[in-house]
User: Which sequence fits this backbone?
C-alpha cells in the first residue's frame, strides 16, 4: 500500500478566549458579554487541524510548555488527528493567548493577542531529514529564522510550500515570500504588501514563474487566483451559508487546500475544496473550534457543481 503523503506544519498555535457581545463595543463604553468560551486557534494550529480532520496526514513541529493552555493545544491537535511527536516540551513555552471580541449582530471581531513566553519556530528543529522527507511544508510567519531555514530546505528538495502569512515586519520576509510556491493571502494584507488596489492586480504583482498558484481570499466575495493554467487572474465565488463566525476561515481554507492539493495535485479543485471548507467552518458555532466534517464539505462542493 502506498503511504499517504505527509504535511509538515510549522507555526503559530493559540488559545482564544472569545467574548461575544450583542453589538461591537464602542470606545469608553460598557457591553454585556452574552457568551464566552475558549477554543484552540492560531494560523497553523487551525490549518493543521482542518487538514487532518479532512483526511490528510499532518505532523506539527513546534514547542509547547506544560501549562494548562499548552496542554489544551496539544489535546486539540491530537483529537483532530495531528501527529504531535515533533512537539518539543519544556517548562516555559506558551501558546499565543488571545482575547477575541465578537459582535453577535454582525460577526465582526477584534483579536487582542499576547506573545509573552511564546516560542516561535526553532532554527534547529525539526531536524533537516524531517523537513526533506515530508511531502509538503505548511508555514506561517511566526519565527522568521526557523521558517526561513525550513523553507530553504523544502525548496532545495522541491517540496511544495503553502504559506499562511499575516505580517511582513521583518526584513527577511522578502526572502521567505520568494520561496513559497503556493501563496494564499487575505485581501487586505495582499493589497498592502503589493501597493495595489484590487485582488486581481495583487495576484499579478505576486506572480512569478516559480509559483504554482497565487490566491487572494476576499471573504464572502470568494477569491481571485492565478495559476500556471491561467494567463490572467480568475475569480472563484464564495459558497453562501448562514455564517456563525468568520475568525479562522482563512486558516481553514489553507489547511483544506493543502489536504486537497496533496491528494489531487489539481490547484483549481484544491481551491474550491478550500472555499467549501471555509464555508463549512463559518456556519458552525464557535464552540466547535476547528471542527470540520468532510461530508459537509463535499455537500457544499456538490452544490457548486449544480
Assistant:
Amino acid at each position: 500500500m502506498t503511504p499517504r503523503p505527509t504535511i509538515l506544519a510549522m507555526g503559530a498555535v493559540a488559545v482564544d478566549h472569545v467574548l461575544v457581545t450583542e453589538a461591537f463595543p464602542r470606545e469608553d463604553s460598557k457591553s454585556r458579554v452574552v457568551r464566552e468560551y475558549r477554543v484552540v486557534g492560531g494560523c497553523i494550529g487551525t490549518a493543521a487541524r482542518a487538514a487532518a480532520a479532512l483526511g490528510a496526514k499532518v505532523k506539527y513541529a513546534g514547542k509547547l510548555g506544560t501549562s494548562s493552555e499548552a496542554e489544551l493545544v496539544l489535546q486539540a491537535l491530537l483529537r483532530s488527528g495531528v501527529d504531535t511527536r515533533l512537539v518539543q516540551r519544556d517548562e516555559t513555552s506558551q501558546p499565543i493567548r488571545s482575547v477575541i471580541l465578537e459582535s453577535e449582530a454582525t460577526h465582526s471581531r477584534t483579536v487582542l493577542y499576547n506573545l509573552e513566553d511564546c516560542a516561535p519556530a526553532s532554527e534547529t528543529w525539526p531536524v533537516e531529514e524531517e523537513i526533506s522527507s515530508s511531502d509538503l511544508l505548511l508555514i506561517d510567519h511566526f519565527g522568521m529564522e526557523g521558517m526561513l531555514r525550513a523553507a530553504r530546505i523544502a525548496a532545495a528538495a522541491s517540496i511544495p510550500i503553502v504559506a499562511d502569512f499575516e505580517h511582513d515586519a521583518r526584513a527577511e520576509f522578502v526572502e521567505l515570500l520568494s520561496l513559497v510556491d503556493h501563496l494564499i493571502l487575505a485581501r487586505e494584507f495582499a493589497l498592502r504588501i503589493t501597493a495595489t488596489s484590487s485582488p486581481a492586480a495583487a495576484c499579478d504583482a505576486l506572480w512569478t514563474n516559480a509559483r504554482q498558484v497565487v490566491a487572494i481570499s476576499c471573504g464572502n466575495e470568494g477569491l481571485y487566483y492565478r495559476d500556471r493554467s491561467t494567463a490572467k487572474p480568475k475569480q472563484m465565488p464564495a459558497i453562501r451559508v448562514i455564517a456563525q463566525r468568520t475568525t479562522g476561515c482563512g486558516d481553514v481554507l489553507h489547511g483544506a487546500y493543502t489536504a486537497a492539493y496533496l491528494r489531487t495535485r489539481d490547484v483549481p479543485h484544491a481551491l474550491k475544496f478550500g472555499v467549501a471548507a471555509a464555508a463549512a467552518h463559518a456556519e458552525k458555532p464557535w464552540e466547535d473550534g476547528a471542527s470540520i466534517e468532510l461530508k459537509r464539505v463535499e455537500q457544499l462542493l456538490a452544490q457548486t457543481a449544480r
About this structure: The domain at 6-180 is CATH 3.40.1190.20 (UDP-N-acetylmuramoyl-L-alanine:D-glutamate ligase). The mean pLDDT is 91. The radius of gyration is 18 Å.
